Amino acid sequence: MLEKLASFIIMFIDKIGYIGVFILMALESALIPIPSEVTMTFSGYLVSLGKMNLLLLSFVGAIANLVGSLIAYWLGYWWEKAFIRKFIIKYGKYLLISVDEFDRSLAWFDKYGERIVFYARVMPIIRTFISLPAGIAKMNLLRFSVLTFIGSFIWSFFLAYIGLVLGENWKNLEVYYRKFEYVIVAACVIAVVYYIIHKVRKLKTS
Question: pTM to 2 decimals?
Answer without folding.
Answer: 0.74
